[in-house]
Specification:
The chain contains ten helices and nine strands. It is an alpha/beta fold. A seven-stranded parallel beta sheet has the order 1-2-3-4-5-6-8, sandwiched between helices. Helix 3 packs parallel to helix 4, helix 7 packs parallel to helix 9 and helix 9 packs across helix 10. The radius of gyration is 19 Å and the shape is globular.
């Protein structure tokens, strides 16, 4: 199951579908309560106005257009046979239910799209949205990706998340009642957190009914509150080897069956302020694999189960 000493996303997809499956990022043109004034207007301290979006919605491309374009590119590059529509930018359950239904159904109507993955916040997943997503699970693969970042309330307040850990726990229980797969987004290197704090996040999430995680490096993007702190000398980025070592310890605390969907981020080069090494993704992934092999370590090594 763990060819790379951890259960990566490609292996999970092959186990389930028997072929290469790729996620296609789609931009639904939605916003976020941490941006539109419902909670705040400045967003999380590391997020700029782009919000991880591609800009495709603003350029007039429909969900179907984006998926067809993505299919063409990924089929050529990876020989992918099936695809997951990944609603990534901003909060993709933050709209009236009829609009969400139309967006999800449009994505699922595209040939060879076998499921959807919906990125959102734990405070934006009401029963009506979860019921809608749950209705698709009878025939399609459905993941809901909750931005958590840390289990520590003091950190969540510091980074201006707008919710606490209890909100995440409640959202997880509600989603699992609908048979939805959950992917938790976690960030290593958040301001004010030490090694023990970061590993406690892994330990806590590892005990929950969560099917996957994305582990992100905190990098500094221009036009953010974090960029201001960084320029003032109030925030220090992790060094590459520091990050690699923390990821290895993170993996040891997560269940063997949990899908590791990501081990670092993908900053836009033109937006990145620091650290420069975060652009060398392949190098970082190879360093993680090398360290796991050197230590004879693997996902779940430090768990009793």
């Amino acid at each position: 199951m763990m060819e790379n000493r951890y259960y990566d996303l490609n292996t999970y997809f092959r186990d389930r579908f028997g072929c290469r499956v790729q996620k296609i990022t789609v931009d639904a043109g939605l916003t976020c309560p941490n941006r539109d004034g419902s909670l705040a207007k400045e967003g999380c301290i590391y997020c700029n106005a782009r919000g991880s979006g591609t800009g495709a919605a603003a350029s007039g491309l429909s969900i179907s257009d984006q998926l067809e374009q993505g299919k063409k590119n990924l089929s050529r590059r990876y020989h992918a046979k099936k695809f997951i529509a990944y609603f990534q930018s901003f909060t993709n359950t933050y709209a009236p239910l009829p609009k969400l239904k139309a967006l999800y159904e449009e994505a699922l109507s595209v040939p060879d799209v076998v499921g959807i993955s919906v990125g959102t916040r734990p405070d934006c997943s009401g029963d009506d949205v979860l019921d809608l997503l749950g209705s698709f699970t009878r025939q399609r693969l459905v993941w809901i990706e909750y931005g958590l970042q840390s289990v520590h309330d003091v950190t969540l307040k510091r980074i201006n998340r707008g919710h606490d850990f209890a909100c995440f726990e409640k959202a997880v229980k509600a989603a699992r009642k609908r048979n939805l797969n959950i992917c938790a987004h976690l960030i290593i290197g958040l301001p004010g957190e030490n090694r023990g704090d970061m590993l406690e996040t892994a330990r806590t999430v590892g005990r929950m009914d969560i099917q996957g995680v994305k582990i992100h490096l905190l990098y500094v993007v221009k036009g953010t509150e974090l960029a201001r702190l960084y320029r003032q000398g109030a925030y220090r980025c992790l060094e590459q080897q520091e990050y690699v070592e923390l990821v290895c310890r993170f993996l040891e605390l997560l269940p063997r069956q949990m899908v590791i969907q990501r081990l670092t981020g993908d900053p836009h080069p033109e937006e990145l302020l620091a650290p420069e090494w975060s652009l060398r993704k392949t190098e970082t992934l190879n360093m993680i694999k090398t360290q796991l092999e050197k230590e004879n370590s693997w996902q779940g090594r430090q768990r009793a189960d």
